[in-house]
Request: fold
Amino acid sequence: MATSLSVLSPARQREEADVCVLGLGYIGLPTASLLATHGLAVHGVDVSERVVESVNAARVHFVEPDLDGMVRAAVHSGNLQAGSRPVPADVFIIAVPTPVRAGHAPDLSYVDAAAEALVPVLRPGNLVILESTSPPGTTERIAATVGRARPDLAPNSAEGISGEGVSGQGDSAGGDSRAYFAHCPERVLPGRILVELVENDRIVGGLDDEATERAAAFYERFVTGEVLRTTARTAEMAKLAENSYRDLNIAFANELSVLAHDQGVDVWDLIELANHHPRVDILKPGPGVGGHCIAVDPWFLVAASPERTPLIRAVRKVNDAKPGWVIEQVHAALRERPDAVVASLGLAYKADVDDLRESPALRIASELRNQLGARALACDPLVPGLEYPPLSTLDEVLQRADVIVGLVGHECFREIAPADLAGRHVIDTCGMFRR
Ligand SMILES: NC(=O)c1ccc[n+]([C@@H]2O[C@H](COP(=O)([O-])OP(=O)(O)OC[C@H]3O[C@@H](n4cnc5c(N)ncnc54)[C@H](O)[C@@H]3O)[C@@H](O)[C@H]2O)c1
Reply:
């Protein structure tokens, strides 16, 4: 039973697991490690051999505070192993990528592949939880994929599964003759993942009430935040609504920053003053919006109903235009200093992480390198290696740069002494040099 997970002896050799986590990236690996350190037998699955090898060697393949210690503890306890195929388990968690394709259509190929990989190992009573951020209807889509191959496991959906092949042959008495499907969107903040996995409130929506209850009971084993029960579609839309709301508010700040610049107004002072209004809370502008969440998820809502989402689309356009505006500011500075060396500080999509996905900073630094060649430096000490643009050290930047473009407020950049910036033209897109 999914709700009666037991603590396993670490020594047990597993061909089965309590929990099988598909996708061992920023979400899947912390989740798998957390569950393993809570005593669950966890089998992590990844299609990348490099990731599987690194996890089995108790190593972490991206930067996240305290994760290395937790992965070491999980692997050394014997409770976390990784492999390239799912094994039988009580609970399956899908945490694979959900990007958008060119043209912004959702790319569900990773989710589909994960669902297909589950089919041979799924058993009656299993609980399948989709954690990947997904367009409305994706949990139903997974159940439909399973149902086509294994009609015996198909659920009775309270929401009415429309996927062909799902015949709804579950046990109406709620017995364990079928599988249970639920969505639980992940809302952790990179940099605080281990804390937020436990402390955040979780939205849990099943395809039927029993799936919701089973999934909620699973999270209540290790989450201290509230576990909020709803339907799968509501849970899917809730996460998309949250990120679209963030996108919208950042777009407002970004639009203000451009306007304020034209008016000769310091946008940071402007926002600080406006936020003294008791019911106003304007966010901070930046070089654009990146990451594979806020820059991507609103498109899932647009794709669900293009004619009903003019605002969400306009917001994406505003944020996507900001990097171009930053590059214009660099060219304005170069008109005054035509031979200047320009340095971009920060390439990640946000401060104090190494994640480059959809990063506006990377886009700006790459474009400047294309345009200015070796006169454009790029520096991000958190990013270990990069094909393009070539990376410079902070020392080299401080020796050579005439124009400094502050793109990502990593702590190492915020610590730069004001004297080290003196005499240079500074374009601070995110307020990182404000004292
Ligand atoms: N990173 C975040 O901060 C964050 C926050 C909230 C939600 N999410 C969502 O969580 C999901 C996963 O994001 P992530 O950041 O962990 O992605 P990631 O790219 O870091 O990791 C995904 C992993 O899945 C693996 N993978 C791909 N297809 C697979 C398959 N069929 N079977 C097994 N493994 C497979 C990849 O090799 C990769 O290692 C996405 O939907 C994302 O939007 C991410």
About this structure: The two ends are 55 Å apart (CA to CA). The chain has two domains: 17-241, 266-428. The first strand starts at residue 17 and ends at 22.
